[in-house]
Amino acid sequence: MINVIKRVAIGIAVLVGVCAFYTGYRELFLATGWTWPFEVDDITLPSLPSIVGALFDPVQEDGELLISLLFKAALFTAKEAFVGFVIGTIVGFTLGAVIARFQMLQRGLMPYVVGSQTIPILAIAPIVVVGLGSLTIAGWTPSDWLRVSVISAYLTFFPVTVNTVRGLESADPRAIELMRSYASGEWAIFLKLRLPSSLPYLFGAFRIAATACVIGAIIGELPSSIQGGLGGAIINFNQYYVLNPQNLWATNLMAAALGISFFLVIVIAEKLLVHRPPETLT
After folding, report:
1. pTM: predicted TM-score of the whole model, two decimal places
2. What is the pLDDT along the chain (282 residues), one digit of tens a residue?
3. Are 72 and 142 within one domain?
4. SS3 track for 143-172
């Protein structure tokens, strides 16, 4: 309990420090008139009170509050990101388990797995979202948001694949030989030894994928013209940035909060499921 309180206190202190730095940087540049590396004013760096205040202002006259609109958009994007996270985790873990089991596949497939991440996500997102829109299976066509989830899965599967391979190979060779001496099959060794040994590595990948899947969902919404998510909100508020820069900054804060929420869920799950470091699991 004390450790939890310490971490919360440190997190709050860091947040306060970041806000203080932002405000101090802004006020210093406004007072001195410095223009390097860019001019600071209410458009380039809105004040924090104006950004927070914008959340409780209506987007349009007598319309919905910005915070309500962004909360609904965040829930929509969270759905896309969660489905993408699940798909990417399943694909990544399965691929990693196969690669770890067969060394020849590791040499043959890993370069392509790594190479897949060198393709800019902004380039592949329109191809996937638009391409899947023309796909029909038994009269069923993937919906817009499901196609966006594929982009989230694309960013998720890579860290899961790599860490699955590392985790499954981290089991103590002596423990493996001991189980084999008792006539344990490969499946039993996988479930009772390799899989538990890989959990710390897997959750390390999940922490990375938790934020990456949110980024993938937001980017995937752009070519699909989805207006219900944070990606659509970013496009809309970017068009009117000069008039209301606070709206775009508030949207970015909501996107960051969504990514942090996904990350914290993984951290909590890790605390509940992983109790020992990999070297003591065997």
Report:
1. 0.89
2. 677 788 889 989 999 999 999 999 999 999 998 888 888 999 999 999 999 999 999 988 778 999 999 999 999 999 999 999 999 999 999 999 999 988 788 888 888 888 888 888 888 888 888 788 777 777 777 888 898 999 999 999 999 999 999 999 998 889 999 998 888 888 999 999 999 999 999 999 999 999 999 999 999 888 777 788 999 999 999 998 988 999 999 999 999 999 999 999 999 999 888 865 544 443
3. yes
4. CHHHHHHHHHHHHHHHHHHHHHHHHHCCCC
CA-based angle 36:41:42, to the nearest 5? Answer: 150
- CATH code for the domain in which residue 110 is found: 1.10.3720.10
Residues 121 and 83 both lie in one domain:
yes
Question: Are the beta carbons of 247 and 55 closer than 8 angstroms?
Answer: no
Shared domain check, 273 and 194: yes
Residues 103 and 193 in one domain: yes
Residue 228 tokens read as 């219900």
The CB-side HSE value for 53 (13 A sphere, CA atoms) comes to 7
143 and 201 inside one domain: yes
Q: How far apart are CA 117 and CA 124, in angstroms?
A: 10
Give the residue numbers spanning the domain of 12: 1-34
Question: How many distinct structural domains can be found in the chain?
Answer: 2
